[in-house]
Structure formats: structure tokens, C-alpha cells
User: Which sequence fits this backbone?
């Protein structure tokens, strides 16, 4: 590992650990910091598939939302604790991803993107229409996140927003560490090989479809944890958390930050979340500016910010 | 009961005709240029709003002709300035760009025409029911089916029997070879994109007369259009047409028996098609993944 990479890792870790303390100085607030970490996790999870396997999913919001709904329902209907609720959400989303993944794994490129977009809509309409269980268009209310009981101590994530931030950060850290290990593992190496040259990887005897499927499911598993955290943060979840526009936002976060770099999507998420927060507080027409960001990124920064920096560094 | 079923089948056919019309435009662009035009729904909405503004000046019939042409012209500009530089690159970028464009266009429409829905006046003589027993058979609905059928027929004639259509079909198979034969493929892609967007604009004017006018009018049509393409088979325009009509009718029938699944059923259908016949009903195996 180069010193440059180490310095970047260290910088990210320090920035994340201290974020609630300097967020106010740059015009933010603790909840915004928490949202950055959650969206960062979602974008990094998507990038496991997009950046490291080279497969474009435009429907990740479905699994994000499923994670959120799963966690929210487990708390509302079964009074589950915070950690089991997150696990419930992740389980629901992962099972869905495993089934749908099996249906679509042979598709590539345009086709794969289109099928993932379309399948995402199933869950949107399920949440939208099944009023009795999901609360329909109004969202699922009437539940609150609970303090986390470790037996010997209790973490009050209900009223203490710093505690909530560090809880979310801890979950983020575990997920990101696991993803980093997976990327460095033989499985991760083979995924990069598929990205670089699928036909060659097939000739080398790799079971391409099974590996892409695995990558899809892993990616959806982690994005669903982000979704569960998102529901906990807001004490609320509604069908917009499953809608295709959120899927698009995840992709632009990953691309804007740099999908070929490990931390890129986190940077992209931070910029996107901050920008969205700022623009939507300034003008009603914030969607126009978000759209403009998409267009500008594609035209001028297709490699992403960290991609550009890395290239400069290499030259 | 049987009348209710008939009503919903008929309704589904109309909605399906819209899905098909929209999906045909999407398909054209996707097949030749490999671009998923996510802004297609926004172009549809724009066509409808342009017609709304034009009607007081040139009447419904004038707007029906002019609004789609203006929409198509804007499509040409967008293609030239934003999409052309992305040809040959990763699908990811054209998808993201048109996605952002959809945001921008939808918000611009809200800015210019307001976020509330607007009344859209089709000629009154078209709105009265044709038969007292089949009350749902209003003149406008029949008229719409006629226009959609005419547009689809015209499109297939252009594609099947004109030099332009031949080049588009050939380019879908192998653009490089078409290029080496001396065809200006940049121009071909531009015209093709404009044609696809023109169809979206036409669908917009017609849809506004039926569904009313709101900035999100295209949003509700674009997803089913993707499904129509997948069910019909990527790369086959006939498949896209039939796929659109089929999902329209299926979702119309579902509205009778299980109303809350009206939207979801088409995605279930898509899942079944992918499971049983992954290439889609009319897709050719091996050509497009």
C-alpha cells in the first residue's frame, strides 16, 4: 500500500471521527453529518458493484428502501431492538436481491440497467399501495428508534444526536472494513478481472454469472443497511426511499466522487448531500440544479474528483 | 361484469397504446445509439405543455401538428450538444446525463407552467360518448387509438420502405459497416433521436387530452415503457409495440379483479418473461444482451 493511499485513509478516518465537531463551523449540523455517512455507505455499497465489478445497477434504491422498511416494521410491529431491526431490514432486502439477481444476472450493459430500474418499481408500488402495512404514500409513522442496550451500558441514540452519529459511524466502519477485505480477497480480484475483460475471465474458468450475482447481492446487502440506518435517523420511511430517482442519486454520488477509487463515493455523497441541503433551502427549483450537477459531472468530470486527483498524482 | 371487463380491457388498450408509442421512441434511440433516454418522459410532458400553450393560437389540430415538431427540434438540439459527445462511451454516462436532463426539464416545466395540473381542452365534439351502452367509448378515445395506430403505421412504413428507415435498421445491426458504406452516421443518429423524441411529443399531446396535464405526466409512463421494451424483447420494434399493448391490457384487467396491484402486475409479468423467455417475446437471442 502506497503512502498516498495510507494518507488518504488516515485523512478520511480523522475527518469522519471529528465531523460532528466541525460541521457547525462550515454551516452544517449533526444530522447532516449523519446523513452524509449513511449516503456515503449507500454509494460505496453501490460502487462495490459499479466500480469494482463494472455492472451498472440503476435500481439500488429498492434495496435501500427495503432495508429501511424492514427495520421500521420490525420496530413498529414487533418492538424489536435497534440492532435486530437493522438485521431484519438487511435480511428482507438481501433475500429480494438474491431472487431478483438470479433473474437478471445474464443481462449486460443497457439491458441490465433497464431491468434493475424496472424491478425497483415493484417495491415502490408495494409500499405505495399496501396502505395497511406500509402506511402507503404517507409513509410509515408511529414508531421511534430505541436506545441500544449492551447489557452493561446503554447508548442513548434517541435524544443524543452525537451518540446517534457515532453509532451510525460504527456501523459504517464495520461495513466498509468488510467491503475493503472483500475487494482485496480472491473474490474481489476476480470481480475486477470481470470488469476489465469478461471474456478473458470466462476463458480462465471463472463462473462469471455466479460471481456477478454474488457481487450484486453483497452490494444490495450493504445498501440495505444504509437504508435501515436512514429510517432510524428520520424515525420515518416513505416510498420515496425506494424510488428510482434515489437510485440515480446513488449512481451520481459514486461517479462524482470517483468510482474507481475506494473513498470516491463517500466524497461524492458528502458533496451531493451538502449541495442538496443547501440548494433546497435556497430555492424551490432545487431539482433543476441537481439535474445540472448530473449533466456537468458527466460532461466535465466523468472520472470523478478522486479519479482526477489520482491521475494527477500518477503523472 | 362483462361490461366492466370490456371497459377495462379497452382502457388498458388505450393506456397500452401510450406505453407502446413511448416505448417505440425509446427503442429507436436505444437500438441505434445504445442510449437509454431517461428524459423521454420529460420530452413527452414538454410536448403536452407546448400544445397547451399553442391551442389558444392555432387550435387543437394545429397544436397536434406543431407541438411534437417543436419537441423533436429540441431533441435534435439536445442530441447535438449533450448526447453526441457520449456516443461510443459507457452506457452509464448517457443514462446519467439524460437522467439529470429529466430533472432539469421537469423542474423547468414547473417553473414555466406551475406545479399544479392544468385543464387540457380537447375539441368538445370528440368528448361525447359514441354509444349509450358502451359509455366509455368516447370519441376522443377512439380518435386517439386511430392517431396512435396511424403514427405506428407511419413509423413502420418509414422504417420498412424508405432509405432513411433502411439505414436506421442497418445501423441497428452494424453501424460501423453502414458508416463505411458512405452513410453519415452522425446525421443518422441525430435524425433518429429527433424522430424518437418527436414520437414522445406526439404521445404527450394525446395523453394530455386523456389524463390531464401535470409536470409528472411522463414519469408515470416511462417505467411501463421500459417494461414494454423488456417484455417485447430488446431490439425488436414489433415486440415493443405488442409488449406495450399487452402490459396495458394486463394492468387494465388487474384493475377489475385486484385494483391495488394495477401498477405492480406489469413488473411481475416482466419477471415471468425474464424467467421463462429471457430474450423477451420477440427478442433475438444472442444479438443484444
Assistant:
Amino acid at each position: 500500500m502506497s503512502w498516498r493511499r495510507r494518507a488518504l485513509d488516515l485523512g478520511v478516518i480523522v475527518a469522519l471521527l471529528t465531523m460532528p465537531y466541525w460541521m457547525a463551523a462550515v454551516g452544517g449540523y449533526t444530522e447532516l453529518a449523519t446523513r452524509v455517512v449513511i449516503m456515503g455507505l449507500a454509494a460505496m455499497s453501490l460502487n462495490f458493484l459499479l466500480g469494482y465489478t463494472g455492472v451498472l445497477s440503476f435500481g439500488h434504491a429498492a434495496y435501500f428502501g427495503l432495508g429501511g422498511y424492514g427495520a421500521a416494521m420490525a420496530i413498529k410491529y414487533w418492538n424489536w431492538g435497534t440492532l435486530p431491526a437493522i438485521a431484519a431490514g438487511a435480511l428482507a432486502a438481501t433475500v429480494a436481491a438474491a431472487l431478483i439477481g438470479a433473474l437478471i444476472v445474464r443481462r449486460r450493459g443497457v439491458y441490465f440497467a433497464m431491468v434493475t430500474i424496472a424491478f425497483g418499481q415493484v417495491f415502490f408500488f408495494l409500499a405505495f399501495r399496501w396502505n395497511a402495512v406500509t402506511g402507503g404514500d404517507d409513509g410509515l409513522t408511529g414508531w421511534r428508534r430505541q436506545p441500544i442496550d449492551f447489557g452493561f451500558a446503554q447508548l442513548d441514540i434517541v435524544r443524543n444526536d452525537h451518540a446517534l452519529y457515532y453509532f451510525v459511524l460504527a456501523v459504517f466502519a464495520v461495513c466498509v472494513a468488510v467491503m475493503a477485505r472483500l475487494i482485496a480477497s480472491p473474490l474481489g480480484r476476480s470481480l475486477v478481472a470481470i470488469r476489465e475483460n469478461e471474456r478473458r475471465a470466462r476463458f480462465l474458468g471463472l463462473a462469471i454469472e455466479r460471481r456477478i450475482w454474488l457481487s450484486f447481492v453483497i452490494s444490495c446487502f450493504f445498501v440495505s443497511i444504509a437504508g435501515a440506518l436512514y429510517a432510524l435517523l428520520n424515525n420515518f420511511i416513505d416510498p420515496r426511499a425506494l424510488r428510482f430517482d434515489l437510485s440515480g442519486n446513488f449512481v451520481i454520488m459514486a461517479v462524482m466522487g470517483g468510482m474507481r477509487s475506494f473513498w470516491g463515493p463517500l466524497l461524492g455523497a458528502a458533496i451531493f448531500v451538502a449541495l442538496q441541503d443547501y440548494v433546497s433551502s435556497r430555492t424551490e427549483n432545487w431539482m433543476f440544479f441537481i439535474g445540472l450537477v448530473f449533466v456537468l459531472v458527466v460532461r466535465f468530470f466523468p472520472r470523478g474528483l478522486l479519479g482526477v486527483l489520482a491521475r494527477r498524482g500518477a503523472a | 361484469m362483462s361490461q366492466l371487463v370490456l371497459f377495462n380491457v379497452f382502457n388498458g388498450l388505450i393506456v397500452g397504446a401510450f406505453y407502446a408509442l413511448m416505448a417505440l421512441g425509446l427503442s429507436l434511440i436505444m437500438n441505434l445509439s445504445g442510449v437509454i433516454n431517461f428524459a423521454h418522459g420529460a420530452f413527452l410532458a414538454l410536448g403536452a405543455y407546448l400544445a397547451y400553450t399553442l391551442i389558444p393560437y392555432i387550435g387543437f389540430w394545429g397544436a397536434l401538428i406543431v407541438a411534437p415538431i417543436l419537441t423533436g427540434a429540441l431533441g435534435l438540439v439536445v442530441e447535438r450538444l449533450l448526447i453526441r459527445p457520449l456516443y461510443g462511451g459507457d452506457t452509464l454516462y448517457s443514462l446519467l446525463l439524460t437522467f439529470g436532463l429529466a430533472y432539469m426539464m421537469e423542474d423547468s416545466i414547473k417553473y414555466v407552467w406551475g406545479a399544479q395540473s392544468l385543464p387540457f381542452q380537447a375539441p368538445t365534439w370528440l368528448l361525447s360518448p359514441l354509444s349509450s351502452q358502451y359509455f366509455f367509448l368516447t370519441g376522443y378515445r377512439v380518435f386517439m387509438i386511430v392517431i396512435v395506430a396511424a403514427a405506428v403505421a407511419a413509423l413502420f412504413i418509414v422504417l420498412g420502405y424508405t432509405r432513411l428507415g433502411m439505414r436506421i435498421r442497418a445501423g441497428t445491426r452494424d453501424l460501423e459497416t453502414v458508416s463505411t458504406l458512405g452513410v453519415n452516421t452522425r446525421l443518422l443518429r441525430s435524425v433518429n433521436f429527433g424522430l424518437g423524441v418527436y414520437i414522445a411529443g406526439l404521445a404527450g399531446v394525446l395523453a394530455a387530452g386523456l389524463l390531464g396535464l401535470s409536470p409528472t405526466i411522463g414519469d408515470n409512463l416511462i417505467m411501463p415503457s421500459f417494461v414494454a421494451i423488456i417484455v417485447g424483447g430488446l431490439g425488436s420494434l414489433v415486440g415493443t409495440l405488442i409488449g406495450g399493448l399487452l402490459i396495458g391490457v394486463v394492468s387494465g384487467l388487474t384493475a377489475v379483479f385486484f385494483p391495488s396491484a394495477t401498477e405492480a402486475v406489469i413488473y411481475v409479468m416482466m419477471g415471468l418473461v425474464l424467467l421463462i423467455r429471457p430474450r423477451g417475446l420477440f427478442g433475438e437471442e444472442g444479438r443484444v444482451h
About this structure: Residues 9-217 of chain B form one domain. Chain B has one domain: 9-217. Chain B touches chain A through 46 residues (CB under 8 Å). The mean pLDDT of chain B is 87.
